[in-house]
Amino acid sequence: MVFQENATLREKLAILSDAAKYDVACTSSGVERKGKKGQVGNASASGICHSFSADGRCISLLKILFTNECIYHCKYCINRCTNDIPRATFTPEEVCTLTMEFYRRNYIEGLFLSSGVIVSPDYTMEQICKTIRDLRRTYRFNGYIHCKAIPGASPELIEEAGWYADRMSVNLELPTMRGLQELAPNKNRKAILTPMRQIQNGMAESRELLGMKGGNRSAYWYTQKRNGRELPGSQADSSKDRMLSGGGPKAVRDKKSDFPQQPLSDKPASGIALPSSSKNPGLFLWKHCDISRGFVPAGQSTQMIVGAAGESDYEIMAVTEALYQRFDLKRVFYSAFINVNQDATLPALNGQPPLRREHRLYQADFLLRYYGFRADELLTEKRPFFNTYLDPKCDWALGHLEQFPVEINTADYNTLLRVPGIGTKSAKRIVAARRTGSLDFQTLKAIGVVMKRAIYFITCNGRMMYQFLKIDEDYITRNLLENDVEVMKGFGEKVTYRQLTLFDDLSLRLEGKE
Predict the structure, then answer these.
(1) Residues 259 and 190 sit within 8 Å (Cβ to Cβ)
(2) I want to staple 62 with a disulfide (CB 3.0 to 4.6 A). Which of 41, 108, 114, 133 is the partner?
(3) What is the SS3 assignment for 419?
(4) Measuring CA to CA, how many Å separate 251 from each of 189, 236, 241, 244, 313?
(5) Could you give the CA distance from residue 276 to residue 66 in angstroms, rounded to a whole number?
């Protein structure tokens, strides 16, 4: 193990940006904040995309670890304590300097700050808090900040970070508790879920007590409300708690929850409590922090590693649904497992991470958040994995042909969302357009419906687009696969997978390849 004690700032940046590349972070900011006089930067809710790398991916955040030193031995992690790799640690001043200089040069639009655990969770979280506090107060940075909450850190430090960050995340790491025990023996599920619950409670209080300044509600919350289902925080759905704590469908029936279902009742650090109607207020430091942004205004997210512990897609989606229902998360990210340590206890992937599986999980995640699907509709214990060749929505429709075809001119919004090829925008356009007249297939194509998938599942004025079309699973499957030239891409080929690094674009230019 090589400690870079006298490393330059650029050398540290090379080490710690490379160490952060396995964290999924590049999304829209989810918070709208205009620039202010005397401050640097702003934030746009619609997105923070800035430029593109050589392989087509967006570079929008300075994504770094505060340190890649770590006291834990997670078998899947490149930064585990037993690995012999170059180690480096930033100071808070160095992170602030990098962020401001990169922002002024228009390289980035925000900061993503994570960290290994150095000395202890409290010490690490204290350094993260100092960094983002200095960015806001001393350097007057008004741009987007996403920081990780360290499991096991004290509630006071978690809350302090929430007043300065726009978004916070606590990585669930592995979907099942069984996998966590096997591959991350120094971590436990309760330590991970406790700060999640604290952040959720803090956002709710911030919204209520500071004039809606706090984590905005998730897409899943609005979808559930539209469908009239149980809203997040309900005590009725205790099976979801058991799924999170026990980690599997069987555990839903057999095991009780081991994480807090009620709001946390932590002792105030300052003795100054925010006035609240809640019996268990979660915010205590509001008089010592800048409350103009609210508490974690862009909400919280988490990340799961896919394919490291042998979990099924059904288990992953059940845990995802539980997280959305119980913690009102903005996003759950999925990271295809890469055996960077070549550990014998980890699954052998022949150099190919499960990227297509990751893609299917993201597609299913959208169905949960925006389309009103439930996890047990998409998969079951008897059918625990997604179809490799068809997207989850098409696959569901083929398994429920009794519900099709759908008449475009009479179906309600929620029914339209179940039709392959019709998304949320096109469904809204259909509902709006048919108020002025009957719709035909040409109109649907102009509206944005993907007709190559939708034609098998819809009628207009009682007629299908072509007379020879028939509602038959084999017939539709063959035609869908024949029309989709991308579905076989990568099958039978050796996939070369490489994570993006901060210096990819620069190195290609220096080599004259761009």
Answers:
(1) yes
(2) 108
(3) coil
(4) 14, 17, 10, 9, 16
(5) 35
Reported as type and span, the H/E element at residue 305 is strand 300-306
What is the spatial distance between Cα 426 and Cα 106, in angstroms, rounded to a whole number? 35
CB 25 within 8 A of CB 168: no
CB atoms within 10 A of CB 133: 18
Contacts of 132 (CB under 8 A, 6+ apart): 111, 113, 145, 147, 161, 164, 165
Coil, strand or helix: which one is 290? coil
> For residues 416 and 427, is the Cβ–Cβ distance under 8 A?
yes
- How distant, in Å, are the alpha carbons of 390, 399, 436, 453 from that of 379? 14, 11, 39, 21
Q: Are 186 and 196 in contact (CB under 8 A)?
A: no
d(CA 73, CA 212): 41
For the chain, list the domains and their CATH numbers: 2-351 (3.20.20), 399-483 (no CATH)
Chain-centroid distance, C-alpha 462: 41
- Residuewise pLDDT in 10s, the chain (514 residues): 455 567 899 899 889 988 887 777 656 555 666 777 777 766 655 445 444 544 454 557 888 999 999 999 999 999 999 999 999 999 999 999 999 998 888 778 889 999 999 999 999 999 999 999 999 999 999 988 999 999 999 999 999 999 999 999 999 999 998 999 999 999 999 999 999 999 999 999 998 888 777 888 899 999 999 999 866 554 334 444 445 555 444 443 333 333 334 333 333 333 333 344 344 456 888 777 888 889 999 899 999 999 898 899 999 999 999 999 999 999 999 999 888 887 777 876 665 678 899 999 999 999 999 999 999 999 999 999 999 899 999 999 999 999 999 999 999 999 999 999 999 999 999 999 999 999 999 999 999 999 999 999 999 999 999 988 888 999 999 999 886 655 545 444 444 545 556 665 544 444 444 4
Pairing of strands 58-59, 51-52: antiparallel
3-state DSSP call for residue 2? strand
Residue whose pair of structure tokens reads 């539709």 in the numeric block: 476
49-54 long-range Cβ contacts below 8 angstroms, 24+ apart: 50/106, 50/107, 50/108, 50/109, 51/107, 51/505, 53/500, 53/504, 53/505, 54/504, 54/505, 54/508, 54/513, 54/514
Query: Cβ(187)–Cβ(72) under 8 Å?
Result: yes
295 neighbors 206 (Cβ within 8 angstroms):
yes
